[in-house]
Amino acid sequence: xxxxxxxxxxxxxxxxxxxxxxxxxxxxxxxxxxxxxxxxxxxxxxxxxxxxxxxxxxxxxxxxxxxxxxxxxxxxxxxxxxxxxxxxxxxxxxxxxxxxxxxxxxxxxxxxxxxxxxxxxxxxxxxxxxxxxxxxxxxxxxxxxxxxxxxxxxxxxxxxxxxxxxxxxxxxxxxxxxxxxxxxxxxxxxxxxxxxxxxxxxxxxxxxxxxxxxxxxxxxxxxxxxxxxxxxxxxxxxxxxxxxxxxxxxxxxxxxxxxxxxxxxxxxxxxxxxxxxxxxxxxxxxxxxxxxxxxxxxxxxxxxxxxxxxxxxxxxxxxxxxxxxxxxxxxxx
Length: 333
Known about the structure:
With 333 residues, the protein is of the alpha/beta class. It has 2 domains: 4-193, inorganic pyrophosphatase (n-terminal core), CATH 3.90.1640; 198-321, Roll (Diaminopimelate Epimerase, Chain A, domain 1), CATH 3.10.310. Helices cover 37% and strands 20% of the residues. It contains 11 helices and 12 strands. It has helices at residues 4-13, 27-42, 128-138, 145-158, 169-180, 185-193, 198-209, 226-232, 242-247, 279-284, 302-321; strands spanning 16-21, 46-51, 69-70, 78-84, 100-107, 118-121, 212-213, 219-224, 254-262, 265-272, 288-289, 293-299. The strands form 2 sheets. A 6-stranded parallel beta sheet has the order 3-2-1-4-5-6. A 6-stranded mixed beta sheet has the order 7-8-9-10-12-11. It is globular and about 60 Å long.
């Protein structure tokens, strides 16, 4: 925990703190962010939470989610800025400089380049929330039901409700402790997995109707276009977790979701069942992430982007598992 001590010292010295997370925030990012905000306020700090993108509907049950500011423009200067669950550029907030004396980055993605002076990276953590749990413990802040709910949500979502290979005994112990501290597991499950909007389910049906896979069956992919969003009255946040439906296809090693974000731009989500390391693959595409979950954003036509990504995926599978048929000629399963 040598990386933690200077972060604790920096936060203890700070009076004003900004906490931010990556674009399109997920459950781990938001749960970690809000838990830290609540804990720092218990230490008497003046804390602002700000993200580039709004809180998705399924996470608005989290305590304090309504107070997260949205937008690129930062107001004022801070003693410390803390970026969670991402390397700082992924927040989208700091193009015009970083208005703080102390820059703190806490993340569990192995692809984080450690750009800020105070960086704590734990690639063994299943979720950044596990790290924030340790940080709060070392700050000597008692964990109340609100903090517990945020941390439980963080770990619950980033382990796929404790189904993914990144789930550890540590994850389960912290989750159990959070339940003892007042977190309601059903409240989290109901909001995250049992309260989907009608538009989301319509969109999911249309997206899965277009699923394709490689001839060897080891790669499968779907495409979400702006036109599909318009047809179903849906938004990008409605695609959360879509790629995991693709990964569940029998025989698939890597699943890919291509989501259109502009006329010639696509956000790529990659998921592996565990035998293919996606972190390096995503880095080669200008992105990052974990062994089993990674992504990137690429410019080009859909055909150009698919060719590049599926080619890279095919090469990674061949290098790590052996040669198979290419993913270049898709067919419906």
